[in-house]
Every structure is written in structure tokens, then in C-alpha cells.
Amino acid sequence: MRKLTITNPARTDLLNIRVYTVSRYGREIANSYDTFLKQAIRDVREDPYRLGSKNRPEISKNIRSYHTMLSRARAGGTVKKPRHFIFYFLPNKDEIVISRVLHDSRDIVRHIPEEHLE
Questions:
Q1: Which one, out of 26, 44, 55, 68, has a CA that is 20 to 30 A from the CA of 98?
Q2: Would you kindly state where each structural domain of the chain is located, as residue ranges?
Q3: Better pLDDT: 3 or 58
């Protein structure tokens, strides 16, 4: 299994998603969404080139994205309309780095850390 690194900006994204979901929908829904996001991250870690993942050359030559909607069936639970992308890159064949976890309505390019752009 590839080594997984979650950057500080991505950790902040996950925390902010949790805080927003708790305040808007309650702790039970936030727990379901946390479980769902963990499954999506596991899916990317297991196969970063899985069906539905994409190269994002408009952002950077090394950034890929995966819409969390694609993990819905594997996650089970009650999440009906996931709205987040996982942005990641592979610095080598044995490691995957999660750069950001962003809502799909955000201006994506603006939020990827410069050190992840080439």
C-alpha cells in the first residue's frame, strides 16, 4: 500500500468540512460524511488512477482529482450528494499526497498550494 500524506491545507479542509457539516446538519450527519470522506481517501490511496480520477493539467502537470461522488456506493451510509474533490499527486510510485479537499463549487486553481504546482 502506498504511503499516504495528508498536507496541512488538506487537514484544515477536512476540519472545516466537519465544522460546517456539524453546524448545518448536526453531528450524526457529520459523522456519516467523515466516514464517507475516509472511504474516498482510501479509494484514491488504493488506486490513484481509478476510474473517474483525472489528470488536471489546467492546474498543474502533476495534480490529479477525484470527485468523492465516485466513492458513494463503497462508503455505504446516507450521504446522497457529496460535493467535494480530492486533489492529490504522486511524488513517487510508493506515495500519494492529498493536497486539498475542496467543494466542487470553489475556484480550484486558486486553492492548490504553490509548492504542489509545477
A1: 26
A2: 3-103
A3: 3
- The percent of the chain in helix, strand and coil, each rounded to the nearest 5, is 45, 25, 30
> Which ranges of the chain would DSSP assign to H, the alpha helix?
8-25, 27-46, 72-75, 108-111
**pTM (two decimals):** 0.87
Cα angle 5-51-67, degrees, rounded to a multiple of 5:
60
Q: Which fold has domain 3-103?
A: YaeB-like fold (3.30.2310)
Query: Tens digits of per-residue pLDDT, 43-91?
Result: 999 999 999 999 998 888 889 999 998 887 676 767 778 889 999 999 9
Between strands 95-103 and 84-92, the pairing is: antiparallel
Q: What is the DSSP letter of 106?
A: S
